[in-house]
Amino acid sequence: MAVMQQIQAEVDRYPLVLFMKGTPQYPTCGYSSRAVQALMAAGAVSLRTINVLEEPEIRANLPRFSNLPTFPQLFMHGELIGGCDIVMELFEAGELKRIVEEASAA
Hints:
Elements: H1 3-13, E1 16-20, H2 30-41, E2 48-51, H3 56-66, E3 73-76, E4 79-82, H4 84-92, H5 95-105
Parallel strand pairs: 1-2
Antiparallel strand pairs: 1-3, 3-4
């Protein structure tokens, strides 16, 4: 399966997908760590995470797929929400909790 199809399959299959550096338990960059902490604080229990450091093909091609050059990247129902800055803005505005609840209800 081509890597673009693999990425599409992941974001289609799971309501919330976070492409990050490291894992939720062991994030390897501050931005991924902050995004995971915000998502967990917002109640994300069924969050699908993909460690782009273990998936070099995804790491190389995700920026082309999403038109966003940085990591982490959060997708909800196949749509790009954004990176760490957007996740933090949504969290601080109280919107991330609604997004997480909406994704969980699907």
